[in-house]
């Protein structure tokens, strides 16, 4: 659906020539904006509808009673099987926060979801071998679990700025009728959609420009020229760029074939997929800069560590 609409806007409405940089950037922009905004409204609405059947305090209490790390492992594993990019993972993350799931567990999902998914796993297995694919999936899930545990231990719940007075009132009261539950869920979904709309447009717009105008040769020439520092430099270069792992694996295979070490290439891919600038812009609307910087810093350190690990074993 998103592809058909974005193609219509790009090639029929704007009459742009296919396979040009401008057309690629415009098509990428409309495709992702439509997809992310739809997910924000749909996912947040559905989760809040389900939320009306349970008391948020009880949900938080039950999850809090789980043995240490079990909730993080479950969230990271769930993230690994969801085919979302970094920005598309945000709606589910927001839904988890709305449901009062502990932020450490919510972050385990947010970290793992864009890094590991079944499509990227299959493509990586076909191009690099299944042993490497399994090791990468395990590394991504481990990073999600550890990152979520650390954020949970830091007790940064106050750094979430999504909730409003209406949310706090809903802690003590949930609509009882079916019509009331639907109305409540739609209201929260529409409110979240409105809050995140400008951030989605700006974030994806920046990603679309980079997507359309940064050539593959840039990565080979830039990342490949540094030796011991190549992994952190690859991670830093990848952060501003927005793409999904499933679309990046062939690019990483090409870069590796041109002599760039595997771990360095994976660090670039993981940073592009899991720590994109557009994702940061959207997340800034739902959390403080302190929490956002903590999230980016922890994941960046984990990505660099994984990059060095794969350079050692490959």
Report on this structure.
- There is one protein chain.
- The protein has 314 residues and is an all-alpha fold.
- The relative contact order is 0.13.
- It has one domain.
- It is globular, with a radius of gyration of 20 Å.
- Helix 10 runs antiparallel to helix 15 and helix 14 (262-274) packs antiparallel against helix 16.
- Residues 164-171 have low confidence and may be disordered.
- It is built from 16 helices and no strands.
- The longest helix has 36 residues, at 178-213.
Keyword list:
314 residues, mainly alpha, 0% strand
N→C terminal distance: 40 Å
Residue windows where pLDDT falls under 50 for at least 5 positions: 164-171
- In the residues, how many domains can be counted? 1
Total helical elements: 16
Average pLDDT for all residues: 82
- Roughly how much helix do the residues carry, as a percent range? over 70%
What is the N-to-C succession of helices and strands?
A: HHHHHHHHHHHHHHHH
Sheet-strand content, in percent, reads under 5%
